UniProtKB/TrEMBL annotation:
GO molecular function, one term: proton transmembrane transporter activity
Top-rank taxon, per record: Bacteria
Descriptive protein name: ATP synthase F(0) sector subunit c
Transmembrane regions listed in the UniProt entry: 7-26, 38-57, 77-108, 120-142
One Pfam short name: ATP-synt_C
Coiled-coil portions: none
GO biological process, one term: proton motive force-driven ATP synthesis
Length: 144
């Protein structure tokens, strides 16, 4: 069971990381300062994330010392593969749609007949995410 400290600590750390970014979002800081602050805060966020995952994993490992484990290493790696398939395909689809959608809007604004053709390219970018989701579902179902 989590204690109150363990539940509030990540929330407090995230608030402490995001508070210095408020002047950047309000426009009171320059762009170079904003880039530097953003890079520092992203690095701090991932460092805190890694530390919290490490402490959670060691606590879970200590709790499972006396218990019998039923999940094998292969099943665990399969779940990680499913998560990576979904996450990376969604990231790729986001990049594809970010490039195709403005071009589709530009083509539609020039000629209304280009709407169907341009939406096909946007849908093809979204198809990448659906394929990744299907692959991850297949991986998870094979592990059951």
């Amino acid at each position: 069971m989590l204690t109150m400290f363990e539940m509030l600590l990540p929330l407090i750390l995230i608030v402490l990381i995001t508070l210095p970014l408020i002047p950047v979002f309000k426009g009171k800081k320059s762009i170079s300062t904003a880039k530097r602050r953003m890079l520092t805060h992203v690095c701090c966020f991932f460092a805190i994330l890694l530390v919290s995952v490490f402490f959670t994993a060691t606590k879970a490992h200590a709790a499972m010392e006396g218990a019998e484990t039923t999940v094998s290493l292969g099943a665990g790696l399969g779940y990680i593969a499913a998560a990576l398939a979904t996450g990376l395909s969604a990231l790729g689809a986001g990049i594809a749609v970010a490039a195709a959608a403005p071009a589709a809007i530009g083509a539609f604004s020039e000629n209304e007949k280009n709407f169907g053709k341009s939406m096909i390219f946007v849908a093809m970018g979204e198809g990448v995410a659906i394929y990744g989701l299907l692959i991850s579902i297949i991986i998870v179902l094979m592990k059951l």
